Amino acid sequence: MDEAKLEKYSSAITLSDMEIFVFPGLMYSLVLADIMSPIIWRWREEDCFAKLGGKDSYKKLMRLKQFIMDEYEFNLDLETWGLTDRNVELKRFEKFISPEDIAKSNALFGYHGDEYYFDVDIRKHFGLDKYDSDIIPYWKTETVEAMDAFRLKEGYKTGAGECVSLAALYAAAAFVVCQIPFEDIYMILTPLHSQNFIDIKDGVLTNNRRLVTKTMWFNGTEISNKAQRALRNEQVTIVARNSGYVHCFYDEATMDKNSYEKFNSLLGSYLSEKCTLLTLANFLRFKSDYQPYFQFCCDGCRGGEKFAPAEVLFHYEHGSNFRIADEKFERLIAEIADQDILISKMPDRMCCKQLVQFLEYEELDVRRQSDWLAVKDYLGPFVPEVDKLLSELADFLHIEAKLPKPDKKYINGLPIKLSVDMSREEVIDYLHSIRKNNETVELAFYAYRDMESCRWEPFVKAAVERNPVSLEAARSMQENEVYQWLSDMPNESIYNGKRLAQPDEVANYKTGDGLEKAFVLSNILLNRFPDKGVEIVSSGDNVVVNPPGYRFDSHKGLAGKIKIEENNRISIST
Fold first, then answer.
1. How far apart are CA 40 and CA 411, in angstroms?
2. Residue 547's CB: how many other CB atoms inside 10 A?
3. Residues forming beta bridges with residue 258, ordered by sequence position
4. 100 CB contacts (<8 Å, ≥6 apart)?
């Protein structure tokens, strides 16, 4: 492989945040790797999903949310995959993208976000503030196997993963388990977050382990406000789907133009809602300072029309299972003490229902600034800062996501056409059939770690250049102690078949096949003695690292000779 290709293909092995930003096709490569994994296909057999066999995809998706919340933690330990040097990483990618552009869009290279993120000190929130030198953490994305293996790591009772890993997992499971058409799943990446938009009903966003429906998006709760943070305040760097990607910095896009236009329309509709009694109540829940200027009325409640100050109703709502202005509003009213219910309208407060009726009758939309003057005349006598309220209400009801500009050169490749009726074996066979004509699919097999059908150079390069955890774990050990440490580990890989874990996966989870352990030892030896080189000789079930001739047992059935010389020059023979 030439140097540029080797950099990209080895990035499909390590899948750091930085690598995905530079090589955006890798995002869907990881999704495809998870789709090929037997782990997610086994979920179909879980009782909770087997019982939903005849149900629609939406019901399955809602059940998937609870399954993922039960089975996976959100991991924000930035040092899970060790530390690297900022300048080394910038040097790696300077031929692909400028350091200045990287700094604008990556949290580990100077990105702070817009004014909102400065206000909440987002770098401190994510633990990035302590990395103020050139030493920074690897922010690596995990395959589903690596996510599941967190159960083996001290301090974890379930699987785990960071946001990009969870987004890839959700996308794969939405297709495999919920049988949502592959083309209806869009991935959205920002500098500090990754999520999916699923085109089902009014749209669903995945957000780490959670799902956010359009109704939830506008409910005014703290959880929903946090879910909105990325799309409200960050530039979207990558949008990806089965037909390709659009990147904020690259002039060429591999997604077809019609698909990108459709996505813009779908997301725009999801992020915008008209002012109804329900959304007005949600806004007042979110912006409680305005509650003293409003009242709610209920027709036919407890013997006739009744009224209540907004802040009183929200006080009752806080301890109730029912919500203001939804289909169970009357049941909330029934919980209110008699002294807090009024039989007459308060003349100094705007009635929420009356305001909504006025907007409907006059065909006014608070999302349009051109309509504000008429609304101000109506609402002004009740609200002192009516301009501020209208601005904040419009902002609550409508978000303009900062998507990559559509003026790209669209280089349409071969779309990936997976059917929900396919079996796992049919999916893998199909992907094999198109991999030579679709680089995202080809890279998926590297992310999948299929060492039977992939070239070894990318895996080896990644193993000896980007695995600092194993180096740190063995720092105080002598050479023979490193061998004993590895030998004492269970001889079981986290990957099935002829697929291999990287050294840091072995070190983190303290388990690995003999061939994987050989790479751990080689990584450590090369780091200590860079001018000596090592050779890994695998005969299928027996693996030897020379020098010094340490032997491991392997069940992978992979044979060959891998020689790594000074400056990590790699040669492979079989």
1. 32
2. 12
3. none
4. none
